[in-house]
Amino acid sequence: MEAGTPPPETLAEKNEEAKTQKALQEMGGTRIDPGTSDADRAAIVQKALPPGLVLNSPEKSEKTGLSLSIDSQATTNGNGAANGKNVDANGNLTPGLPKSPLPTSPNGMPNGFPKAGDGEWDRTGWAPRFGSLNDELGLVDLQSRDHQTFLDARLPDNLFGDWYHNAGIIIFACVSTWFITKIGGGFAWIILVIATCGTYYRTSMMRVRRNVKDDLNREFAKQKLDTDVESLEWINSFIVKFWPIYCPVLEATIINIADPILAANTPGFLDSIRLPQFKLGTKPPRLDHVKTYAKTENDIVEMDWKFSFTPNDTADLTSRQLKNKINPKVELEIRVGQGLISKGIPIIVEDMTFSGLMKFKIKLQIPFPHIEKVDVCFLERPHVDFVLKPLGGDTFGFDIGFLPGLGGFIQDQIHSNLAPMFYAPNIFTVEIAKMLSGAPIDQAIGVLQVTIHNAQGLKNTDAFGGAPDPYVVCSIDNTKELARTKVINESITPRWNETKQIVLTTFNGNFTFGIFDFNEIRKDKEIGKASFDMKVLEENPEQENVVIPLMSGTKQRGQIVCDFKFFPVIGPTKLPDGTLEPPPESNTGILRYTVHQAKDLDSSKSMIGQLSPYAALLVDNKEVHKTVIRKRKNDPSWEEFKEIIIHDRSKCTVGLKIRDDRGLSADPVLGSLNMKLNTLLDEIAKGNDWFTLTNTKSGKAKIRAEWKPVILKGGAGGSGGYVTPIGVMRIHFKSARELRNLERVGKSDPYGRVLLNGVEKGRTVTFNNDLDPNWDEVVYVPVHNARESLTLEVMDAEKLGSDRSLGAYHLPIAQYIKEGENGLLMEHSEKVDRSEGLLLGRKGTAKGTLNFTVSFYPCLNVADPEDEEAEKEKPGSVPITPVTPMPPATPITAKPPSDSVEEIELEKKEKGPEKIRLTPDELLDYNSGLLIFKLIDGHFAKSDCFLEVLMDDMLFPSYVATKIKSKQMKFEEIGDAFVRELDFSKVTLRLREASKDKEHDEDDIIAKLTGQTQATLKQCLNNPTTLTLRHNNGDTSKVQISLKYIPVVMTLDPSESINNMGTLRVDVLDANGLVSADRNGKSDPFCEFVLNDDKIFKTKVQKKTLTPAWNEFFDTKITSRTGASFMVKVYDWDLAGDADFLGQAKLDISTLEPFTPVTRVFKLTGKKDVPGNYGEIRLRFLFKSDYVVRSRQGSSTFSGTFAVPGKIVTGVAGVPLKGVGLAVGGIGKGASFIKRGLGGGKSKNAEIVEEEAQMEAAVAEGGGVRASIGGELETVDSHNSPQIALTATAEQNMDQYSRSSLAPSDGRHHRRSKSGASVKSTSPSRPDTSGSGPSQGVATIRLVSATGFGARDLNMRGRIRVLGPKTKEILKSKSHKTSTGEVTWDETCTVTCSADQQFQIYVEDDHVFIDKALGEGLFVVDDTGSGRDTVVTIGNGQVTLKTSFKLNGSSENGASGSPKRRGFLGKNK
């Protein structure tokens, strides 16, 4: 035979090949002969491919993207054997997929169809659901169709089968036969009617009987399930055959698991402990019966199982089975001594029997594995029996259970240990879903905060012992002690008022309070125990004032009062697209600290070279856990952990000490480790979990730390999970376009919000019924690291139900947070306009666009005095001193030990950049920063409310504290708020009543306190201070707070300054040279003012004139002067049709100086700003800087008329003129038509003309006219003494009032210098330097007299009303009869209002039935303190009033004195 020639096939090989060929044909495969040519091979392969799959050239197909080439060189080897993956060694083409992937559709769905079960359940029949499919899918009705009749199958179900149907057909048969007989019908008609009715009646009765039968069977079956039990012989037959197979495997598994554990935990005085034998016997356990409960929830399966394991019961065994029977036996060998001089002592437990009745409660779930958990418990005490031989072994051993009293004692110990875990009502829960998910079953789920208030009616178990000295021990199911209170001496009503925080791993079980009587000599005696079912916390995590009876056996020994609060672990949030969003940063939480193993320990510290190490876990230099001792292990493995509550992660340190167990002598340290917790977490995030031990020659330890954030509020040491930010993100919400419309009627009501790790941190106002909102709002969000997730989301506000998302954009913030070479964060102030599509989830098509800008401003790296004090108090710490430059010294090269290199690197990472140390005065020189407030505790006049912190012009609170549920509240919470301008910033504390309504209004606010942020910060900086809030009903509430301030490195945008927002007062004076729109050459002009495309004010119509004098005013809020679009449009009023356009003018308000009145003349233009001869209009502006709180409805407007048409405006205060028929000319001849007086065409004398000329000149220069004390008119120059007094006293008044704060003033802090803009923001009558709008105070109005109402019989009465959104009458005078038209009332009223409040005087002729109006007029109070009369013209008469205005807290002498200020602690300043 030649080399390389295959030998001839044998007969066996041919038979095997024939079988293979047949199998391939059945599977769809093809046989390829090794000698086949390449072309034939390709043809066979092409033929074997599935239909529709085309082999292309080696180049990639353009249509399918499938590339499949057949390489003839690679097809066979030298022997002609096939090398292709689809061809086996014998040359057989196996049915398989080609190497290249199958073509997929563009959307990623295989074969163009959605994946079954992934939201698509049509291919499976039904989606997963709870409950019976017969009921859900109507299968019960389908089963009854097999017995339907012809009529039953065609009649609707609602037309037969009920008693009224049967009664109706009987009545119909009777009436129809009577009717047929009445009309003379034959007998055949009667038979037809009877047959029809009989068929219908039979069909209906069949259905009635069937329904009754089904209902009875169903009820009987349910009752049988509830009362009877079912036999389980079928499963017992299976167990008998399965037990011989599985039992040896189970026994071997238990031995292999137990031996290493016993060896690792062998005490030092023993040689070894092992398990020589573990036998369960040849007779398997038996399931006697099962009882099923049918009436449970759809996701609950509940059963009672009766089982027994009685291997000694041989009644049902044959003689052969008895001969081969193996009894249960467990042998534990304890070997005493060492080496050859050792002896094993066997401890034998045999002939075990066990039987009981167990309840299984299975909780189902739709996600895999479809079983959430299984609750197991014994309904009765199980029967346990065994033979225990502790000495003598099989030969000389005897059962100690026969000893008197010992057997019963052992039984009691067994039941007492099992009862808290297994005996009803206690249950043992197996978390099936957690087990199969791979997560540790014993991991923490949250923190249980227990506040133990008091106990009442304690009864000592010793009748002659007197009053007990009680203390409380907390545990779960009477197991390990978790916490203990202090001892109260000799009290049957002790008050502890202590709060304990405990890590919870499950809600299953009872929280147990054990109250003991303390005794110094004898053992403490138990008074009683109280249990609380923790499953209640799963539904309601807060349980207050829980009263639990204290039981000792069956006797009650008093009761205990306590609170429970559960704070869950905040895990990652699963988004709709399936991705996980990380949890928010929190400074409080649970640390899972694990020590895995150690290696390379220094064995030279042992005389024999073998160590017995154990590890001690340290947190803040305190030992929290000690591992087991690993005997004679130089590379020990522990795999132990401890979960600890951490209240301040930023200051927490963790450590590890490994010691060698030396028995009675001191245990030497083999190595230690200590570092900051944040450093450890950062290293583990990088994948580093091996750390070099210090204070030793060699050694490394593997440790891990897992952080679980928990927001702790109201507890001892809790900080609300606050983490100091590294900077702030500035998000400018500009606008959104083409948003989704989720409303069936109307449009969505969108608002924008910012989510940090899924938690809302800021939001804009809501724009009603608008899919293209223009917010133009800036939101500042503190951030803590570059890994946080920031989401910009647009929501649709809903009055009922939850707000709905219109789309979101997930903003990566790492691109904005960069670190400089010096280790400090850099400012990212470039504001680039961005337009991003809004997605629902992170999949799908974007709908709508969000326009915004993003910036980042880092916090100044300032040292915290409290942190430095804490470092000084630590043992062995070195006082921190400022770093000063040192002169260069002689360089000394010293190489650190190799083992300490990692330690030095960790120290460098922990230290970070050098912190800046600032004095309080230097700290407050920074105008922008973060205000950090710590709410400590409070005493409140009302419970069931919220404490909120608001800043400046924010509509929504910067922080909302925990709900106040009691009048004595302990917060221990920390929050922050951003301060834009510290010089002008205001902070507000308010109490808001808890309301079920989503939108809160002013009625919900029960107390509020506002003050200057800077002055408040000076008093509360690192200093706990008590603030007092006064309620609307006069009650007071107090809250204790402490403040910190972290400057932010930024330059405030001018558009966000307080000088860019405020209240604008516009006085509409007059116009000249308007266009004629009527046939008579005149017009009926009126003005309309438009702010940001919203109409905000409309004047009255002036009839038949081209030089109108309106003399009206209005106030409006300006959110941004630089960005405001302000315009006035003049129209001609027409009786029919739309008004005619006369002209318009753009009003530039960006150049206005705050608190400085200015009069300007604007040229009117045509539409689209076309220039021309359209006339001009004269307006006066007064802008008052103030924070403007934006509302849901947009800008609010107040308007009014301070003089009747034809009267001139009198300065800023707007006091009406006294007299009739005189007016100042406007622009040119603005009011010339009034100069004729009441006589019409009469000319005036020279004195009047000269006086009017003076008035015109005064008004033209920004002044005005006012009424003198004698009733004469006098001019007010814009530069006279009152205006000079405003400037002269501005600085003094600012110094007095800028310190209005949330705390009393403190002279230790010097006042900072003010800018020029802030000096102008003060006036004697409005001393609030923050620009808080119109000053509030008390107006006194005296209705003096009336004259000029004609010589006739009148019964005159005057009324005074306050104008505004709701008109309110404040004075209704007595009626006085007169025949001369003159009357004196001399009646006074007072009202709380602002300095520029508008009032209406109304005079009427009082009659019994119908009063006759004599006229009305408008006026404002005189806030200058001049004491002059205010004369208001009403019709042909005049009414004289005396008005005055007094600021809240001002002195009696008016504005000239120093107004008093009430501090927030109740003191007058």
Describe the structure.
- Mean pLDDT is 76; it is low at 1-6, 55-108, 875-901, 1193-1301, 1303-1333 and 1450-1469.
- α7 (163-182) packs antiparallel against α8.
- The protein is 17% helix and 34% strand.
- The chain has 1469 residues and is α+β, with helices and mostly antiparallel strands.
- Strands 3, 4, 5, 6, 7, 8, 9, 10 and 11 form a 9-stranded antiparallel β-sheet that branches. It has a 5-stranded antiparallel β-sheet with strand order 52-53-46-49-54, with no helix packed on it.
- The protein contains 23 helices and 65 strands.
Structure class: alpha+beta
Overall mean pLDDT score? 76
Please provide the count of β strands: 65
Number of helices: 23
Radius of gyration: 46 Å
Largest sheet: 9 strands, antiparallel
How would the global form be characterised?
A: extended
Low-confidence stretches: 1-6, 55-108, 875-901, 1193-1301, 1303-1333, 1450-1469
Percentage of residues in strands: 25-35%
First-last Cα distance: 123 Å
Helix amount, in percent?
10-25%
Relevant terms:
1469 residues; alpha+beta; 9-stranded antiparallel β-sheet; 5-stranded antiparallel β-sheet; 23 helices; 17% helix; disordered N terminus; disordered C terminus
List the helices and strands and how they pair.
Blueprint: H1 11-27, E1 30-31, H2 38-48, H3 72-75, E2 92-93, H4 133-137, H5 139-143, H6 150-154, H7 163-182, H8 187-227, E3 230-231, H9 233-264, E4 270-279, E5 286-293, E6 300-309, H10 319-323, E7 329-338, E8 341-364, E9 371-378, E10 383-389, H11 393-396, H12 406-422, E11 428-430, H13 432-437, E12 446-456, E13 470-476, E14 481-484, E15 495-504, E16 510-517, E17 525-533, H14 536-539, E18 542-552, E19 555-568, E20 573-574, E21 580-581, E22 589-599, E23 613-619, E24 622-626, E25 637-646, E26 653-660, E27 669-676, H15 677-685, E28 690-692, E29 700-709, E30 727-737, E31 750-756, E32 759-763, E33 777-783, E34 789-796, E35 804-812, E36 834-837, E37 849-858, H16 865-873, H17 901-911, H18 920-923, E38 929-939, E39 945-951, E40 959-960, E41 968-979, E42 986-993, E43 1005-1012, H19 1013-1020, E44 1025-1030, E45 1036-1047, E46 1062-1072, E47 1085-1091, E48 1094-1098, E49 1109-1118, E50 1126-1132, E51 1140-1146, E52 1158-1163, E53 1176-1185, E54 1197-1200, H20 1246-1260, E55 1264-1267, E56 1273-1276, H21 1281-1288, H22 1290-1297, H23 1316-1319, E57 1336-1347, ...
Antiparallel strand pairs: 1-2, 3-5, 4-7, 5-6, 6-8, 7-8, 8-9, 8-10, 9-11, 12-15, 12-19, 13-14, 13-16, 16-17, 18-19, 20-21, 22-25, 22-29, 23-24, 23-26, 26-27, 28-29, 30-33, 30-37, 31-32, 31-34, 34-35, 36-37, 38-41, 38-45, 39-40, 39-42, 42-43, 44-45, 46-49, 46-53, 47-48, 47-50, 49-54, 50-51, ...
